[in-house]
Write a structure and sequence with these properties.
The protein is mainly α. It is about 65% helix and about 10% strand.
Length: about 160
């Protein structure tokens, strides 16, 4: 199986876990749950427990969006190096970028529910590590793009 296929399956599995965990925990949630956190992970916004469905819905939308993008590597909406415009490469890049996004959604949902259940008091620093992974993926694409641009200029 190709790398992009494996990444797609892992991302799809994470989406199923996000929905399953939310469904399992929903009935036991208090009527008001944390919905927003400040930079330090402390709660600065709350809403009714129905708002817990927002993050799984956004994660699902992002999954469909990334899947659609991976199917059209020539899209003018993609700002990627020409070397990424092959279907296999764009799939690896897009699904590599989606992976930390899905992990981030899962972490925020799990931690929000744990805070609502009073099992922890604030978000952990895991969010920052996950964002770091996402920036590494973006940075890798950027470095490849810059190198490709320099090679094209030297060939002209």
């Amino acid at each position: 199986m190709k790398t992009s296929g494996i990444l797609f399956i892992v991302n799809a599995f994470l989406l199923v876990v996000i929905w399953s965990f939310t469904v399992m925990k929903y009935a036991g949630l208090p009527d008001v749950i944390p919905t927003h956190f400040d930079f330090n992970g402390k709660i600065d916004g709350q809403a009714g427990k129905d708002s817990i469905w927002t993050l799984p819905c956004i994660a699902t939308f992002i999954s469909f969006l990334f899947f659609a993008i991976s199917k059209n590597p020539q899209s003018s909406l993609l700002n990627v190096p020409d070397s990424f415009r092959e279907k296999q490469k764009i799939g690896v890049y897009i699904f590599s970028l989606q992976l930390p996004v899905m992990i981030l959604f899962l972490d925020i949902i799990v931690e929000s529910i744990r805070i609502a259940e009073r099992k922890q008091t604030e978000l952990s620093n895991a969010v920052f590590y996950i964002l770091g992974i996402m920036f590494v993926v973006i940075g890798t694409g950027l470095v490849i793009s810059i190198r490709e641009g320099k090679i094209k200029k030297s060939d002209q």
